[in-house]
Amino acid sequence: MSIKPETLVQHMSQSISAIQPSDILAFNAEIANIPGIVRLTLGEPDFNTPEHVKQAAIDSINRNESHYAPSNGTLALRKAAANFLAQKYDVHYDPENEVIITAGATGGIYTALSSILNPGDEVLIPTPIFPLYIAIAKLNGATPVFMDTSKNGFVLSPDQLKTTLEAHPKAKAVVLNFPSNPTGVTYRQADLKALADVLADKPIFVLSDEIYSELTYGDRHVSIASYLPEQTILLNGVSKSHAMTGWRIGIMCAPKVITAQLGKIHQFTVTSTTTNAQAAAAEALSNGMDDAQAMKREYQARRDYLYEALNKLGFKSAKPEGAFYLFSKIPAGLPQTSMAFCQELAHEARVALIPGSSFGPGGEGYVRISYAASMADLKTAVERIGQYVAAKQTTEAK
């Protein structure tokens, strides 16, 4: 008699049982078949990849560049990435040995945390935050230590970081993501300098995911690597800046002695990223350094409209300074459990948002709204939400 899969699955890694499938993707699938629903759920640009970038990939294919690229990425792309980061954010990396091209920023997150963490280690994570970091930490047998920032405008304060470090002196890494998914909040130069002062004398890695750096409104984006270059593993990429989510090209940078270790995990998990996609990304980062500007102007117009319109309906938000999300408090009188609210809104008003509970401590009672959608869809969503709120208020009044 053969062994059944149900028996074998009990012998799989214990780390797998510590995580659950993405409830963001699960919720998105749950409501996908509601007729006529407006989906403001997934964080994906609704723009097309620029034409000159697509042409670079086509040219690469026509040149028969269909073989393995170097594991850490083509030299052309590593040079373009290093120059882009230097020109835009004044952070400097040697493309020969301090840059790795990853399978999206996600690939960089996995490589970095898998390289840093041992079972039983701790990683400090400010929340609300995109849940990927939490899941990957758990997959590596580590314990996430949450720092709830909801009472501080969704910004990690130096005092909160210092207090957490004092309570967890052996923490291996701290994760930063700014501009933030899900809140759209970012860190200003003074904020980063203050955090860096707390971390500078600690043997701790800073994993800084700055994938939304080109979608920063107002003040110019500043990287934490400007202050902690020796401790920072910097992540960026072309997914958000050039509307290239499906091309799966990320950038991971660190001092060369650290990158040498990161490269071991990268080469044994990914081998190398797609060759013609790297040609496209090199074009994006060299001849399309400012391609994000037109998209950013449109996102900012959408942000301004949505922020004001939802505020009038009672949805209070920290005004986003980057990315393309609003993180809004559910008004009183509506279902206060974020999952229940989102399910009811989807079925009754045909508008899909993401429950705030998906993003860790401090997220419950909020919803994430993606404005990577057309203005027409945003206006339809606001109209339907307004009708839903009015109906609920009428019911309450009775």
Automatic annotation (TrEMBL):
EC identifiers of the protein: 2.6.1.-
Gene3D superfamilies the UniProt entry points to: Aspartate Aminotransferase, domain 1, Type I PLP-dependent aspartate aminotransferase-like (Major domain)
Cofactors: pyridoxal 5'-phosphate
InterPro entries: Aminotransferase_I/II_large, AspAT/PAT-like, NHTrfase_class1_PyrdxlP-BS, PyrdxlP-dep_Trfase, PyrdxlP-dep_Trfase_major, PyrdxlP-dep_Trfase_small
Matches recorded under CDD domains: AAT_like
SUPFAM superfamilies the record matches: PLP-dependent transferases (SSF53383)
A Pfam family per the record: Aminotran_1_2
Enzyme class: transferase
PROSITE patterns: AA_TRANSFER_CLASS_1
GO MF terms, alphabetically ordered: transaminase activity
This protein's UniProt keywords: Aminotransferase, Pyridoxal phosphate, Transferase
Domain Aminotransferase class I/classII large residue range list: 37-385
Domain of life the protein comes from: Bacteria
The family this protein is said to belong to: Belongs to the class-I pyridoxal-phosphate-dependent aminotransferase family.
Name of this protein: Aminotransferase
Organism: Lactiplantibacillus modestisalitolerans
